[in-house]
UniProtKB/TrEMBL annotation:
It comes from Halopseudomonas xinjiangensis. Keywords: Isomerase, tRNA processing. HAMAP family: TruA (MF_00171). The gene is truA. CDD domains: PseudoU_synth_EcTruA (cd02570). Substrate binds at residue 127. It holds the Pfam family PseudoU_synth_1. This is tRNA pseudouridine synthase A. Its EC number is 5.4.99.12.
Length: 285
C-alpha cells in the first residue's frame, strides 16, 4: 500500500471539545434582557456570543444561570459554552473583552468538567435591588438605581421581609405571565441594608420567579414609606394572589450578583457588586 493510500485511509483525529465557564457583568439598560431575541432586538447573549465566536473562530452558543429581564443588570452572570478552540483563560478574557461593547465585560473564564451546566448545576442565586432614597432625583446612576423620594424606614422594611424567609408559595410575588412550573421557592436570606443614601435589598434563594425580586421590592418600599403595615408582606404572601401585591418596582435597580455551585467545580470567586457599593462586598452570606 502506498503512503498516499495509507494517509487517506487513516481516520482523522477528532477535535477535542472543552467546556468553559465564564462570569459576565453588564449594564442592562440598552438591552431587552439577557436572552437572544429576534433579529434587530438587542440582547446581552447576542453580544457575548458574537465576541466568543470571534475568539473561537467558530459559532459559539451559551447557557446562562439566570435570564435577566430588559433593563436588569448583572455583576456576576455565569455562563458556559463548548469549544474545540485551543485557548487559555487569558486568551478568552482578553480576546472576548476586546470584542464586547463597553457596557458588557467578561470577568473571568475557567475550564470546567463536561457535566457542569450554568443553569442546572446552580444551587442558589443572589440578587441585590438598589434604591436611592433622597428627595432629589439623582443625575448620576439614573438607570442603575431606583429612586424613591419618600423617606423609607429600613428597619420596618427589614422586619417585614423576614416573613418571606424559608420555603413558600410565592404566587403573589410573581408576574402573572410567569411560566415557572412551580411557585414554591426557598429564600435563604433577605436583608435590607442602608448604605449612605442607598438602601440595598439583598436576597438569596434556590431560584426566582419572574419579577419576584421586583415585586418584593415594591411591597417593602410601600411598607418603608408607612403606607402599609409591617404585616402586609406576610399577608400578601399568604393570599397567593398577584392582585394583593403592590406595584412592580422598576427593572433598573436590580442586579444579579452571585450564583452558588458545588465546590467540586472550583470556580473563581469575585466580589458581588455592583461596583459603586464596594463597601458591601464583605457582607456575610
Amino acid at each position: 500500500m502506498s503512503s498516499t493510500t495509507s494517509k487517506a485511509a487513516a481516520p482523522e483525529a477528532a477535535a477535542v471539545v472543552s467546556r468553559v465557564a465564564a462570569c459576565i457583568e453588564y449594564r442592562g439598560t440598552a438591552y431587552r434582557g439577557w436572552q437572544r431575541q429576534q433579529p434587530g432586538v438587542r440582547s446581552v447573549q447576542e453580544q457575548v456570543e458574537k465576541a466568543l465566536s470571534k475568539v473561537a473562530n467558530h459559532p459559539v452558543s451559551t447557557s446562562c444561570a439566570g435570564r435577566t429581564d430588559a433593563g436588569v443588570h448583572a455583576s456576576c452572570q455565569i455562563i458556559h459554552f463548548d469549544s474545540d478552540a485551543q485557548r487559555t483563560p487569558f486568551n478568552w478574557f482578553h480576546g472576548v473583552n476586546a470584542n464586547l461593547p463597553a457596557d458588557i465585560s467578561l470577568a473571568w473564564a475557567h475550564p470546567v468538567d463536561p457535566d457542569f451546566h450554568a443553569r442546572f448545576s446552580a444551587m442558589a442565586r443572589r440578587y441585590r435591588y438598589v434604591i436611592y432614597n433622597d428627595p432629589v432625583r439623582p443625575a448620576h446612576l439614573a438607570h442603575e438605581v431606583t429612586w424613591n423620594y419618600r423617606p423609607l424606614d429600613v428597619e420596618r422594611m427589614h422586619e417585614a421581609a423576614q416573613a418571606l424567609l424559608g420555603e413558600h408559595d410565592f404566587t403573589a410575588y410573581r408576574a402573572v405571565a410567569c411560566q415557572a412550573k412551580s411557585p414554591v421557592k426557598k429564600v435563604h436570606h433577605l436583608r435590607l441594608i442602608r448604605f449612605g443614601q442607598f438602601i440595598v435589598l439583598d436576597i438569596r434563594a434556590n431560584a426566582f420567579l419572574h419579577h419576584m425580586v421586583r415585586n418584593i421590592a415594591g411591597v417593602l418600599m410601600q411598607i418603608g414609606a408607612g403606607e402599609r403595615p409591617i404585616d402586609w408582606a406576610r399577608e400578601v404572601l399568604e393570599a397567593r394572589s398577584r392582585r394583593e401585591g403592590g406595584l412592580t418596582a422598576p427593572a433598573f435597580g436590580l442586579y444579579l450578583v452571585d450564583v452558588t455551585y458545588p465546590e467540586r467545580f472550583v470556580l473563581p470567586r469575585r466580589y458581588m457588586g455592583p461596583h459603586f457599593l464596594s463597601g458591601l462586598n464583605d457582607l456575610d452570606d
